[in-house]
Structures are given as C-alpha cells and as structure tokens.
Amino acid sequence: MFGKAKAIDHGSLMDRVYRRQRHFYDATRKYYLLGRDEMIAGLRIPLGGSVLEIGCGTGRNLIKTMNQFPSAEPYGIDISREMLVTAQKAAERAGLGDRLRLAYADAARFDPEALFGRKDFDRIFISYAVSMIPQWQAVMREAVAHLAPGGELHVVDFGDLERLPRWFRAALYQWLEWFHVTPRNDLFEIAGTIAADAGAQAETRVLYRGFAWISVIRRR
Questions:
Q1: Cβ of 67: how many Cβ atoms within 10 Å?
Q2: What is a single molecular function from GO for this protein (predicted)?
Q3: How many domains does the chain have?
Q4: CA pair distance 26, 77, nearest whole angstrom
C-alpha cells in the first residue's frame, strides 16, 4: 500500500513519460544506466538496517538490494504513481511484496514519519534520478536530513562523459534531452558542499571513463 502526499505537478509529467515505458523500462535501461549494481554493492547496509530509495521507479534496484541484503527493511518513494504500481507488482512477482513499503511523495520535501512511521534511515540511495529532478540539490539535502547517525546517502548518475568520444557525448546528450534528463556535471561539487554543511563526509567514484559517477555522503 502506498503512503499519501499532496498532488505534485512534476509527478504528472513523469506519469506521462513512463505510462508506457514502465513496461519495458528495465529491459532497455540496463544497457546504459551503468553503475547501479556497483552502488548497491557499496551500500553495506547494517544487519536489520533500513534503506530508502528515492525515485524507486520500477523497483528493480530495491529488489536487488533486498536480495543482496536480506535483513534490510526496504522503503521507496516516487513522484510517479505509474511507476509505484509497477514497483509493487515487481516486488510481488519476486516474492518480496510483503516486505517492500512504497509511498507517493515529493523527494524535495517529504515526511518519513507520516509516510512510513519512522524518522530516519541507515541508507538512502538515488539511482539515475537527480538528472531528472529539477530541484535535485534540494532532494539531496532533504535526503541527508533523514539519515540516521552514521547513515549514508549514495547517488549514482551520469558523469561528465569527458573521457568518452565527442560524437558519443553529443548523441547521448541529445537522446537524454528527449526524456527530460540533464546530467549534473557539478554533482561532486554540490555533494561536497551539502556534506560540509551537514558536518558529514563526501566521497566520489568515477566509473566507465566518466560515463557514471557515484557520490556518497556519510554522516558522522
């Protein structure tokens, strides 16, 4: 069952974008949403710890996380009701539907106590969503605010692509624009600022010649 939140305009856009794509999203995205599995492996969720995915989409990442960290308590929020329906069905097919808790919410301003009955999480991750969220910096700040002591925010998304051929970068940027995706080339810089403001530590990782970036913010 999904939690409740007020209607969100950006959610209407995402519903339109993914109303049909959600049915074949995972089959196509696996070829270029690189670094997701590396990020999940690096979560190192403590035994019985909680994990929240912001922009959980089809549920693919949460299901993989539950399989890799079977003692974890999994949660997910998304701004697209269409995607939440798909995520719930995917979890049920995987035999995990009774464990996964999902909610419709604006990641830039959400109340986890109202949605899930808890105030913070041991791990929060965002996979290829900051490049689609206009207020992505606010989303990252909000996520850090909901980390438990010692908790971590993990973000994976497109990198600056600087070490890849120019023709490839141009073609990819054009293709991404069609789907309202904007790579955040200042992700590492912004993550460092957010971490400093929160008294946390920031780590960075570059994958596949800059195609994918992983940013980690760790609360002390």
A1: 11
A2: methyltransferase activity
A3: 1
A4: 18
